[in-house]
Amino acid sequence: MRPRSPLPPAARAILRRDRGALARLITQVERRDPAVVPTLKALYPRTGSARIIGITGPLGVGKSSLVNLLLAQLRASGKTVGVIGVDPSSPFSGGSVLGDRIRLERKAGDPGVFIRSMASRGHAGGVAAATLQAARLLDAFGMDVVLVETVGSGQVDVAIRDIASTSVVVLVPHLGDEVQTLKAGLFEIADVFCINKGDLPGADLAAKDLREYVSLANNAGRWKPEIVVTSARDGSGVPELWQAIERHEAYLDRDGGRLAGDRRRASREIEELVLDRVAGDLRGALENEPKHAALLERVARREVDPHTASEIVSRTRVRRRPPRSR
What we know:
The chain is α/β, with parallel strands linked by helices. It has two domains: 48-255, P-loop containing nucleotide triphosphate hydrolases (Rossmann fold, 3-Layer(aba) Sandwich), CATH 3.40.50.300; 265-320, no CATH class. It is built from twelve helices and seven strands. The chain has helices at residues 9-15, 19-30, 37-43, 63-76, 131-141, 177-184, 186-189, 203-216, 238-255, 257-288, 290-300, 306-320; strands spanning 51-56, 81-87, 113-119, 145-149, 166-171, 192-195, 226-229. Strand 6, helix 8 and strand 7 form a beta-alpha-beta unit. Helix 2 packs antiparallel against helix 5 (131-141) and helix 10 (257-288) crosses helix 11 (290-300).
């Protein structure tokens, strides 16, 4: 057996719970700094213990207030918590528009909480490509629970499934959201529905409608999403929401769904990494190889169409691929 390679200094810093190192590594991940990859590789075997919970839903439903209440409850029960807030990206800077995260609170100096805001950078579902790696760093850091709040575009915000083991879809009464879930795709990804602002009229009716939708869904033998009514104003329903999340997490362990979900997420992550690597190589070739530069010139002059050009480039790259070693 080969001796295990020594851990990179940054990985050792994470394992000894160095908060400064954690913040710097997440920044490197956001910037797509290749220097962070050895640390991510070294820490991967030390992940898998944290429960990663996704909180999503349309804008204005009170997701951040709900996350704040969940955070308080989890800390009261002694659990350490990481929070990743995926905010809208500025179209000008690419940075997080709501990056100050003033709506999330914690006691100053609480070592059991780490809150980080990240920009969506235009990725589908408001989930940045770096979010999964950031959640994994929080896992390796030793957090018991990682809450990932997505931007919630009100449309297909389903990419949270590529990160979280349990997805909570937050809605409010009287906005048609309980019906809109069927159109937006949120219905299919919800493990738990949360009707927030339950102190408003119509909350019970919204919950009743969702229960009817769930009962009509073809999910025989599978988890049926639970519906919980909460109020961020007075904190009611938040303990019940966490209990519903815990029941789904227990179901994953009992049913084998956790491993199946991990396989699905691994497949998606590997696909994204391969595509990113291929795209980077291709961009470099198009910019730096004279033959491809000439082809770009012909496309710009309307002498060759982009489809034909892509076929030429693909054939060229495949022919240049070195033979596999036997």
